[in-house]
Amino acid sequence: MMAMMMMMMMMMVVVMVVVMMMMVVMMVMTMMMMMMMMMMIMMMMMMMMMLLLLLMMMMMMMMMMMN
């Protein structure tokens, strides 16, 4: 009986440790995904800003040409 109890306790501990590790891994993965999403959004914003700047430059050039 005592041995069975010990075995059960050990199994429970192992399961708990595995679950904790899985949770940590999931958290890290979510953090990485968030970082990647943030980087992607930042890159998109930068590209949009660059395009806007280019458009502004083109408009200025056109205005200069008109004059």
Mean pLDDT: 89
Number of discrete helical segments: 1
Provide the succession of SSEs: H
Shape: rod-shaped
Radius of gyration (CA) equals 29 Å
Helix amount: over 70%
Alpha-beta classification: mainly alpha
Q: What fraction of residues sit in β-strands?
A: under 5%
Distance between the termini: 99 Å
List segments where confidence is low: pLDDT < 50 over at least 5 consecutive residues.
Answer: none
By oligomeric state, this entry counts as single chain
The biggest sheet amounts to: none
Quantity of strands, as a count: 0
Describe the structure in your own words.
The protein has one helix at residues 2-66. It is mostly helical. Helices cover 97% and strands 0% of the residues. It contains one helix and no strands. The mean pLDDT is 89.
Question: Which secondary structure elements does this structure contain, and how are they paired or packed?
Answer:
Elements: H1 2-66
At a glance:
Helices cover 97% and strands 0% of the residues. With 67 residues, it is an all-alpha fold.
Any key phrases for this structure?
67 residues; mainly alpha
